Amino acid sequence: MGSKASSLCLHFLLLLLLSGTVLSVHWPVKSLPGYSGDLPFNLETGYISVDEIEFFYYFVESQGNPGADPVLLYLNGGPGCSGLNGFFYQIGPLKFNITDYTGGLPTLMYEPETWTKTASIIFLDAPVGAGFSYANDSAAWTTTDTQAASQYNDFLRSWIDEHPDFSTNPVYIGSDSYAGINLPILAQDIINSNEAGVEPTIYLKGMVLSCPHTNTDIETNAKVIFAHRMALISDSMYESAKNSCNGDYVDTTTAACTESLSAITQCIAEISVTSTLDPDCTFLSPKEKEEEEEKEEKAARRSLRQNPIRSSLSLPSSITNHKDFYCHNFPYLLSDVWGNDEGVQEALHVRPGTVKIFFRCNVSLSYTVDTDDAVAYHKNLTDTGLQLLVFSGDHDMVIPHNGIEYWITTLDLTLDTDWRPWFVGGQVAGYTRRYTNDGYRLTYATIKGAGHSPHEYKRKEVFDMFDRWIHYYPL
User: Fold this and answer.
1) Positions of the region Disordered (predicted)?
2) Which of 62, 177, 240, 272 is catalytic?
3) What distance in Å separates the CA atoms of residue 126 and residue 267, rounded to the nearest whole number?
């Protein structure tokens, strides 16, 4: 390139920066701090501009047949959890070595049960403010459920436009936890945009929903039933609440109902809601401890509404490897340590100064909930021919499986395969049921022994489930 051309390019880039507009860019990542040698998969990171938002993503190309395998856009919950949450702890190709961790930069290991063995996956830092995604304008930091879904639609179209090799691949969208509220809205936005002729076309084939937040009232009511089924409350406590509250545990209209729910709340207060089999982690940072105590004071008034998941812990280093003090959430700390390392951010090509502190889950977003019920979106989608996989851990009390099973029945689908066990390695991995509506198909599955975000508890079982489903095999 001649000096005159170079000067023009530099001048053009300077104008873009001065105007506040940033080009969407991406880079190959061959190695990462903490991992020995070159990565055994193709990783790309980059930014996609959506209006004034710079969405940061991590793209792992399928290790199978990337030219034909589906592309999965994966959204984490919170809202505010980074795509690295899914990358490291749920469905991605790397994980932290927690066995030998003694401090400093964590080391990384290959995860053989990665979904990237059979699909190309875009892990997105979303909504704005999550991970390394940021906004160029102060007003753009504020978003809602429906606005976020619209932004994800724009992001995905821009990403496909910049990756023409994947322009005809089948596309799936996936979510975990809170992002379940965004997913059917996003699916509807994609379909509407396709029908309106917006280019490029997204060849949306289906959705994958893990322990999805879908309807706040249904999930709240389901917790009382779940607690009774799990023998966390007695028959008499359940019958008292059921009779005094008329089966509605959301709006407490009588003193008897309030009293019954208060007794239930006290009974399950020391149980881990993310997994009733796990110890309840009490080692919290001071700020989180104060917030948790304030939430507990409001618990009776809010009935059994969902508490935010504890996103980080402050465990004394001398007991982190002691089995009697182990907490399922401890490994979450390592992503904060890793993500705030300058060498890591340089390797990922994070723009310096755009994010002051990286959090696995940023709980301080300017985010407004404007959708408490996404069932109507699911109902509309039953005529689209989409394929759905909905799964839940059967020990999850954040989004109880019985609540999910209830809203699925309200879709009025045809039962294709009734409740039966499904197997991995000759052992029951959970139970499944399948529904249809012309070309539309919904497969529901429980993961036996798993808590909230089942992939974190049963990596092999969840991968086998996904691998069968994505290739149209029954569980």
Assistant:
1) 284-305
2) 177
3) 36
Buried b (16+ CB within 10 A) or exposed e, 455-467: bbbbbebbbbbbb
The length of the chain, given as a count of residues: 475
Distance of CA 204 to the CA centre of its chain: 19
Helix axes 216-229, 255-268, angle to 10 degrees: 60
The alpha-helical segments, DSSP class H, found in 367-416 are 375-381, 401-409
Query: What is the largest distance, in Å, between two alpha-carbon atoms of the chain?
Result: 84
- Phi, psi torsion values for 347, nearest 5 degrees: -65, -35
Say which of 396, 453, 455, 464 is annotated catalytic.
Answer: 396
Residue with tokens 């208060």: 262
Could you confirm whether 395 is annotated as catalytic? no
In sequence order, the 6+-apart residues with CB closer than 8 A to the CB of 7 are: none
Lookup: tokens for 24: 């969407």
Our CA dihedral for 414, 417, 423, 427, rounded to 10 degrees, sits at 110
What residue spans in the chain does CATH classification 3.40.50.1820 cover?
22-217+331-475
pTM (2 d.p.)? 0.89
Let me know if 452 is a catalytic residue. Answer: yes
Q: What is the pLDDT of residues 342-390, one digit of tens each?
A: 999 999 999 999 999 999 999 999 999 999 999 999 999 999 999 999 9
Which of 53, 41, 42 has its CA nearest to residue 112?
41
Whether 26 is catalytic = no
Could you give the percent of the chain with pLDDT greater than 90? 82
State the Cα–Cα distance between residues 293 and 235, nearest whole angstrom: 29
Tell the residue number behind the tokens 């940033």, with chain if given. 22
Fold of 22-217+331-475: Rossmann fold (3.40.50)
Task: Give the pairing of strands 25-29 and 427-437.
Answer: unpaired
Structural contact between residues 246 and 419, judged by C-beta atoms closer than 8 angstroms: no
